[in-house]
Design goal:
Layout (H helix, E strand, L loop, with lengths): L6 E5 L6 H14 L2 H6 L1 E5 L5 H8 L5 E2 L18 H6 L4 E4 L2 H6 L4 H13 L3 E6 L3 H5 L3 H18 L9 E5 L13 H17 L9 E5 L4 H8 L6 E4 L6 H12 L1
Parallel strand pairs: 1-2, 1-8, 2-3, 4-5, 5-6, 6-7, 7-8
Helix pairs in contact: 1-3, 6-8, 8-9, 10-11
Bound molecules: phosphoenolpyruvate.
Length: 259
């Protein structure tokens, strides 16, 4: 049993519909009983319109649910955005922040990611904060520089929060961009090296809960490769994209995390 309780989080991205979701929720409800949820935390992150459906189907199960993103500001003329206060109103207790698809496609900066974390902290919404290098950055030997910069911004936001998030509500996800949706999973050794670096950097930033912080690996995790990744000392579960849409695949990953 690991010192840190593993987390398996499903990022559905812009997938699903009300019927497909119902099938997935039904399968998760049936398979993820309280004994398993005593060993791992499971968080499901559907698109915003289905958060209410997630609440209805999962609310009484111990399976947690969260958003895929959150606004960097409190309120105002930000068409299309959803604030941390609104998520909290809905009973939503998690949000992914800084996913590479938002960093790349929406041009989200480290400063914006930090602002989103501040908003979440102010409203008690836990964060799954994503970091990771591109293939070009890895090949240029810049992985640690990139991760260091991203972790510094996250740690500064956590430290500045007037109402700090409890350590169990702060999750980091190392997701090498070259591994997301590509089928090219990082080796357990590459993942471990990055996770150790991230944990040490968090500590060097003065974040007191660095040793207790769950750091997830994300990037083409499947039931078949999950166990070898999760066996690494600093890999505390996974952020799962494609495989979170197939009940058997996602459940296989959950079982690997609980083993
Ligand atoms: C993700 O989108 O966060 C992700 C890890 O995707 P995939 O598992 O499909 O690589």
């Amino acid at each position: 049993m690991k010192a840190r309780k593993p987390v398996v989080a499903g990022n559905w991205k812009m997938n699903g519909d009300i019927v497909a979701n119902e099938h997935l929720f039904t399968a998760l409800r049936a398979a993820l009983g309280r004994p398993l949820l005593g060993r791992i935390d499971v968080v499901v992150c559907p698109p915003y319109p289905y958060l209410g459906q997630a609440a209805a189907w999962l609310g009484d199960t111990g399976i947690e649910w969260g958003a895929q993103d959150v606004a960097a500001v409190a309120n105002g003329a930000f068409t299309g955005d959803v604030s941390a206060a609104m998520l909290a109103d809905l009973g939503c207790r998690w949000s992914i922040v800084g996913h590479s698809e938002r960093r790349q496609m929406a041009g989200e900066s480290d400063e914006q990611v930090a602002a989103k974390i501040s908003m979440c902290a102010a409203h008690g919404v836990g964060v799954i904060a994503c970091i990771g290098e591109t293939l070009d950055e890895r090949e240029a030997g810049a992985t640690e520089a990139v991760l260091g910069r991203q972790v510094d911004a996250i740690a500064a936001a956590l430290a500045a929060a007037a109402q700090p998030l409890p350590p169990e509500r702060v999750v980091l996800a190392y997701e090498p961009v070259w591994a997301i949706g590509t089928g090219r999973t990082a080796s357990p050794e590459i993942a471990q090296a990055a996770h150790r670096f991230v944990r040490e950097r968090l500590a060097a930033c003065g974040y007191g809960a660095a040793a207790a912080t769950r750091i997830l690996y994300g990037g083409s995790v499947k039931a078949a490769n999950a166990a070898s990744l999760f066996a690494m000392h600093d890999v505390d579960g996974g952020l799962i994209g494609g495989a979170s849409l197939v009940a058997d695949d996602f459940l296989g990953i959950c079982r690997a995390a609980a083993a």
